[in-house]
Amino acid sequence: MKITxxxxxxxxxxxxxxxxxxxxxxxxxxxxxxxxxxxSIYVDETLKPIIDDQVAVFESKYDAKxxxxxxxxxxTINSLFNDKGGVAIxxxxxxxxxxNVFKQRKITPxxxxxxxxxxxxxxxxxNNDTLIALKDVVDFMQGKDVPxxxxxxxxxxxxxxxxxxNDLADIKEVRNKGIFSFKTNEEVIKHISQNDGLIGVVGVxxxxxxxPNMQKYVKELNVLHVKGLKDDSYYLPSQNDIAEKKYPLAxxxxxxxxxxxxxxGMGFASFVAGDIGQRIILKSGLLPVRIPGRKFIITGAKNxxx
Length: 306
Description:
This protein is α/β, with parallel strands linked by helices. The protein folds into two domains: 30-116 and 252-288, Periplasmic binding protein-like II (D-Maltodextrin-Binding Protein, domain 2); 117-250, Periplasmic binding protein-like II (D-Maltodextrin-Binding Protein, domain 2). It has 13 helices and 13 strands. The protein has helices spanning 2-30, 48-61, 73-82, 96-104, 134-141, 160-169, 185-194, 205-208, 215-218, 239-243, 264-273, 275-284, 301-305, and strands at residues 36-44, 63-71, 87-90, 110-124, 131-133, 152-154, 179-181, 199-203, 221-223, 225-227, 234-235, 250-257, 287-288. Strands 1, 2, 3, 4, 6, 7, 8, 9, 12 and 13 form a ten-stranded mixed β-sheet that branches. A three-stranded mixed β-sheet has the order 5-10-11. Strand 1, helix 2 and strand 2 (63-71) form a beta-alpha-beta unit. Helix 5 packs across helix 6. The longest helix is centred in the first third of the chain and has 29 residues, at 2-30.
């Protein structure tokens, strides 16, 4: 009798605990807003330095935790498809075929262009030739023998830099035995700095924003001047030449948000495309999609006379 009388109270306690647990889970889920919570963002490995800077400033201003997952371009795209509600940062927009995949899932990606960067060719300081014609690179990619080029070194066979040059050469796969790959831009930079005769292909922000442990290797590199396919002049991947559309290997950068709701992905994209984020881009040596305004303080006549 005593045991039976305790059953209703026990069942009531269990029900209360279940309700509390469900509420706790719901409250955790609802914690994420556009400026609060935690999120993982996939990023093309060639773009990681500039995104590291953006995340550091964003987290310092808001109660947010962003975990960057650095992958090759194709791996980043696949992660975006496999992770429902994901966010990715790429050096190209989604294709019609990719958009159709999301459309079938009833997801409309929010696409935010935020900067223009460039692909850079680098060689060892001991190489006196600092010029390269893009036509020679295209011919080399197509499998032709091009004496000025002994080998091209990429970060990854699934990299956005290799895909970009394959598109330029109108090929679908590697055709030249002189094309090599590692896993990261850091490995490419180290290898080129220590070996003569090869040309490295890297995202320019790995050079303009070299981390302290990479600066000694970057100092051993020449950034090559590039002649475009329809130009007779050579240009560097500098902020000015990118802005004037002279450098032939510039590319637009995008934040692809497939969350489907007003979450942290939307807040981060707005931040990067906003005034502070664009100033970070400008300071990094890349080109922001919109130039941040400058404030001028007009003093009184007495101060002007001073």
